[in-house]
């Protein structure tokens, strides 16, 4: 029931926000003060770095991803993860936030596809909250050096979930593990963070 209420609240909040807007910071996003854009966003390589692109009239605007917190594209929230400055799309939120490869999702939105491939980044990412660090959903046993390993150390409440995800690259399995974890926390079967 809580998931349904949270989903409805999220959808109603998205309805209030611009369908396409660029955010330089979390505060801009939280206060609904992003730069509204009439067309769709894209992220592409440009001289060895990634840029968020959109049209402003006839002009193509390029903003380096390292200067962007995130954006709404057709009502879907995308963030720029902090390690590779790549886009990720929010897919589930609760006691943990689950993100998927933004290149694939942007391609699906642009071309009205049900699935797409990607050439950059990883399939799945996680974060503790909406504004915090986003890490790859790759959790190697004994790893304490990578962002994912440090995330596991910082959030011991996620230990069982992260162990189940492990080094798995199967996005469908990871997505199901995250959903099962969120439901288990809501039902009180697992203690959340």
Would you kindly provide a written description of the structure presented here, covering whatever features stand out?
The strands form two sheets. The protein has an eight-stranded antiparallel sheet with strand order 2-1-6-7-8-9-10-11. A three-stranded antiparallel sheet has the order 3-4-5. The protein has one domain. Strand 7 (76-80) and strand 8 form a beta hairpin. The two termini are 20 Å apart. The model is unreliable at 1-15 (pLDDT under 50). The protein is built from six helices and eleven strands. The chain is globular and about 55 Å long. The chain has helices spanning 2-16, 26-30, 102-111, 147-154, 159-165, 171-186, and strands at 21-23, 35-36, 42-46, 49-56, 59-64, 70-73, 76-80, 87-92, 97-101, 124-127, 135-136. The chain has 193 residues and is of the alpha+beta class.
Secondary-structure element order, as H and E?
HEHEEEEEEEEHEEHHH
Shape from CA axes? globular
Oligomer: single chain
Q: Bin the helical content.
A: 25-40%
Radius of gyration, taken over Cα atoms and rounded to an integer in Å: 17 Å
Protein structure class: alpha+beta
Number of strands: 11
Beta-strand percentage range: 25-35%
What is the terminal-to-terminal distance? 20 Å
Task: Going across the biggest sheet, name each strand in turn.
Answer: 2-1-6-7-8-9-10-11
